[in-house]
Amino acid sequence: MSADLILYNIGELFCPIDNNEPLRGQAMNTAKIMHNAYIAIKAGKIQAIGEGEVPESLISNETQKRDLSGLTVTPGLIDSHTHLVHGGSRENEFSMKLNGVSYLDILAAGGGILSTVNATKTSTFDELYTKAKKSLDTMLIHGTTTVEAKSGYGLEWETEEKQLKVAKKLNEDHPVEVVSTFMGAHAIPTQLKENPEEFIKELTEFMIPEVSKHSLAEFCDVFCEHGVFSVEQTRRILQCAKENNLKIKIHADEIVSLGGAELAAEMGAHSAEHLMAASDEGISLMAKNNVIANLLPGTTFSLMKTSYADARKMIENNLAVALSTDYNPGSCPTENIQLIMQLGSLAMKMSPIEVFNAVTINGAHSLGRGHETGSFEVGKNADIVVFDAPNIDYILYHFGVNHVKEVYKNGNLVVQDRRVI
Ligand code: NIG
Ligand code: FE
Rounded to whole angstroms, how far apart are CA atoms 129 and 351? Predict the structure, then answer.
């Protein structure tokens, strides 16, 4: 059967190896790299890929053809950890941070996440939608075709539900696929500061069952951190999430080494995020229990720290690593996944192949989307990024600019010459 669209003469085509599971350890540094390649697309899915001449059988009078000589093509990028939907911004904290006030001290003083909670509460559905849509457009022009969106700027039901419903509507309206995570356990609300148990009760007895009942999220995440939720509190919240059929993630050992990585392993979490302060024991337990390590070097950079997560040690210990922006108004205000990929190499010493696997096949598995996107297997969604670059190394080495020329989502051209169309 002939194709709807054929991308051909592709200078370099990056194909992750797809064995229906995330790539772990040494396998993260493997990929099939083709030259003078083609991709055929039929009904929004990958129909065929190969090197050299496009087979005649794929071409008819109706087939559209695009010559991509000198360009690099990869699967659509997956940003598997963001706090997409929120009100306001926090540049008012910037001078304080530059003067050495820590992220956790700003939070303890009622700022940080809690100030975004106020801004999100007072924003209407439409205001949140418009702001998040603008961010999704920015993500898309940087090559992101699937994104995770966490709630967690409500800390009470009405606002949490509003955030989740905005994410749901954006998933329906916008070319980028939006996967929702409920993160009501993002901070202790100010009015319950002295009584966190009451908030945990609200989360476990009402909010989590409600999220599950109305299918408002697929995952549940908790900020397990010094001064936020302890390991024991996180365990109880996530146990409830599991009982309500939500898959679990943990903001683990982001700032203080608390045992979040160990908890992720114990609970069989889908992924553990950040891990800047993860212990050696935590890393090896995560590997034994197939927990994906989702690393967010933009946060380390923006918090002006030097303690990047030890990606090399994690890969040596046979972990599967994903990379994401953590886009949020406090610890990482950027939608640009290419910058995060460049930090993956420049700050965490990941090879270009490891970096591209981390934001394609492993990112897809980190969101439970490994069966439909993240690689060029026949039958998967035709989510494709065309970079104005001769090879994948160039994209990471030439940092700080947007290399994306075109983006296809489900076979449709959605970005051309760095504009959403
Ligand atoms: O992943 N650590 C918790 N949540 C975000 C920050 C959210 C915020 O500061 O608004 C993070 O770093
Ligand atoms: Fe985060």
Answer: 37
